[in-house]
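Inputs:
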Amino acid sequence: NAGVTQTPKFQVLKTGQSMTLQCAQDMNHEYMSWYRQDPGMGLRLIHYSVGAGITDQGEVPNGYNVSRSTTEDFPLRLLSAAPSQTSVYFCASSTVGGGVNIQYFGAGTRLSVL
Amino acid sequence: ELKVEQNPLFLSMQEGKNYTIYCNYSTTSDRLYWYRQDPGKSLESLFVLLSNGAVKQEGRLMASLDTKARLSTLHITAAVHDLSATYFCAVDKTWGGGADGLTFGKGTHLIIQP
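Outputs:
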């Protein structure tokens, strides 16, 4: 069972570079989210999607873009990387059955921006 | 704005002891989630608490929810080294559950020493 797959696992960027973090899920979940995790900060929601073609901003969306063209994929784009975007990024998917929103997380992408 | 506060943020305890982690949240919610994260790993769902007075138990871990006090607890009984991890509580942003992500506490870093 693949679940939620994130690539790459590690990435080093220079300030100003752009890149896309990939996320794919094979559970046919409607909902997908991106979080970033910083030391001592817990997880903070960047963007989320309730279905193909529908996305919305979370708590910390600045500097990131998302799109959702298929149910399976939810890529996160860094437009012009900044050192403040050094973090661990987690993608999650869920299906809200009976109002229960258990999120299943990928293994994470560890990003350093120099 | 929904806020989720955990305490303590760091806990070092001996094997065989009991302890409780507390999770307070700032708005009414009837859904509370507990996750576990091992170092360098992703998040794993532990418990979902769906109503006032809900109690869930798995091995040496027991979670409870008091929606009137806006408080959840994660109790550890007779701790063993394998329970060393970071524990997060999270709350649905939307009353009654929804797809717009979870708000996480900062996490409790638990170290259990022999």
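Remarks. Chain B touches chain A at residues 4, 9, 31, 33, 41-45, 48, 50, 88, 90, 92, 96-107 (CB under 8 Å). The two ends of chain B are 41 Å apart (CA to CA).
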